[in-house]
Amino acid sequence: MIDLSGKVAVVTGGTQGIGLATVRALAEAGAAVVLTGRDEARAKQAAAEVAAEFDADVTGAPLEVTDSKAVASLVRGVAKERGRLDVVVANAGVLEDALVGMIRDDLVERMLTTNVAGTIYTVQAAARAMMRQKSGAIVVLASIVGEKGSAGQTAYAASKAAVGNIARSTAKELGRYGIRVNGVAPGVIETAMTAHLDEGIIKGRLEDTPLGRLGQAEDVAKAIRFLASDQASFITGQVLGVDGGLVL
């Protein structure tokens, strides 16, 4: 078991799917976790449930990751209140499919603002807090779609390709401060975000996946927990595929 006792973590988009599984994984390992979501009531309920499950220090807070000032304020507040900030997981993101000829302006704006700008704001806020203590681990959520592309997901693929390069670029900047930045690139994971995929698409993805199954949110959460831990102390600037071999 990875031990994160004494560590303080922030997970954005932590009310469902991979985000919630990550909160559970970090809390199980002993970390104090602040999870965020757009809906304050939902964030606090999710936090209370995880706290009760693991008898852990888990709190929920509202956050819109596209608001840079709000992100900076929340992260700075956590670091000040807790006296440190060890782990930040930039998980909040959106997915909306559209063929290239049908991509609306608002879809492009929403996808790039949330997935790209929101990740940059989160990493930026985390870096500012962690630079003072000269340590920390940041994990961002990329996607295999950002690496191999996907028909009908041009805007999403572009946004997630950017996220992977956010990890690589900031890892080069922040290593001198003892801060590691990595990403995970999930394959097809059974979450609310992928529930809209039709059976034909799912079947095709399964045929292309050597392990022959869909991923679970917990599969990704465990990879994030590893990258956030001291067991990954010499790993930075990597985007780890958690995809059952789909990109091979």
From TrEMBL:
Top-level taxon in the UniProt lineage: Bacteria
Keywords, A to Z, come to: Oxidoreductase
Q: Which InterPro entries match?
A: KR_dom (IPR057326), NAD(P)-bd_dom_sf (IPR036291), Sc_DH/Rdtase_CS (IPR020904), SDR_fam (IPR002347)
Is Oxidoreductase among this UniProt entry's keywords? yes
- Domain named Ketoreductase: which ranges? 7-187
Q: Please give the PROSITE patterns that the UniProt record associates with this protein.
A: ADH_SHORT
Q: Which Gene3D superfamilies match?
A: NAD(P)-binding Rossmann-like Domain
Q: Does the keyword RNA-binding apply?
A: no
Q: Which PANTHER family match?
A: 3-OXOACYL-[ACYL-CARRIER-PROTEIN] REDUCTASE, SHORT-CHAIN DEHYDROGENASES/REDUCTASES FAMILY MEMBER
Q: What protein family is recorded?
A: Belongs to the short-chain dehydrogenases/reductases (SDR) family.
**What name is this protein filed under?**
Glucose 1-dehydrogenase
Q: Which organism is it from?
A: Saccharothrix mutabilis subsp. mutabilis
